[in-house]
Amino acid sequence: MELPDAPRINPSILAADFVNMQRDLAKIAAADFAHVDVMDNHFVPNLTFGPQMVERIQATSPIPLDVHLMITDPDRWAPGYAELGVASVTFHLEAAADPISLARQLRGIGARAGVAIKPDTPADGLYSVLDEFDQILVMTVEPGFGGQGFMAETMPKLRALADEAKRRGSTVWLQVDGGISDATIEQAAAAGADTFVAGSAIYGADDVEAAVTRLRDRARAASLES
Ligand code: DX5
Ligand code: ZN
Fold first, then answer.
1. 190 falls within a domain
2. Chain segment 34-69, per-residue pLDDT in tens
3. Of 28, 33, 145, 212, which is best to mutate to test ligand 1, by the most ligand atoms within 8 angstroms of its C-beta?
């Protein structure tokens, strides 16, 4: 698969209409990846969908899937998502028993391997193992729900991670997720994010396609300036 250049915009279908998923997937054809939030009502206090639904979303989506697993025991469940043929599978560092071997397993199946950290989880434990991952997701809200406010206090951690990745010559993608909008995307881009998940800011807009383009333009301008 040819990979899109930064800045990448990944609309979160958590903000789509679940009974009009085909229609809402068609609206994001010009974005980079469809971000799919899998929640198990255990790792987070919310429930979305499992592999059967993800398989149908994948068959219907005009763009590849970026699966974000907010689940307990990803060591057991994440490989099954990779086997569906999705572009990337991101699991939470806090939930994984053996993140490195899980990432290797995901890559072995053919998915990009991602690791996510909650706002209070430090990133420095990942510095020496950046090469094991294709993307690192710095959560900019507490995982579980769309429509929350962006936590600017996560930006120093993102910046430190971006500096470290640069210092080590790493090609890992740095993703942010939660509260990304016209008002916040520039600070995340300036802090070093290259991949942006947005749910309510995209699906809440009157013109979804224009919202994607605007977010991408803003992120590009801010990363060039910084
Ligand atoms: C939150 C999810 C996000 C969510 C983002 O737990 O991981 O992907 O959909 O939604 P917004 O952009 O509305 O904060
Ligand atoms: Zn997400």
1. yes
2. 999 999 999 999 999 999 999 999 999 999 999 999
3. 145
Would residue 1 count as lying in a domain?
Answer: no
CATH of the domain at 93: 3.20.20.70
171 domain residue, yes or no = yes
- Joined together, the tokens standing for residue 108 give 């072995």
With the most atoms of ligand 1 within 8 angstroms of its CB, the residue from 9, 13, 14 to mutate is 14
Note down the domain range covering 119. Answer: 8-225
The ligand placed nearest to the CA atom of residue 180 is 1
Strand partners, 36: 67
Domain count along the chain = 1
Could you report the per-residue pLDDT of 103-135, keeping only the tens digit for each?
999 999 999 999 999 999 999 999 999 999 999
Whether 2 maps to a domain, the answer reads: no
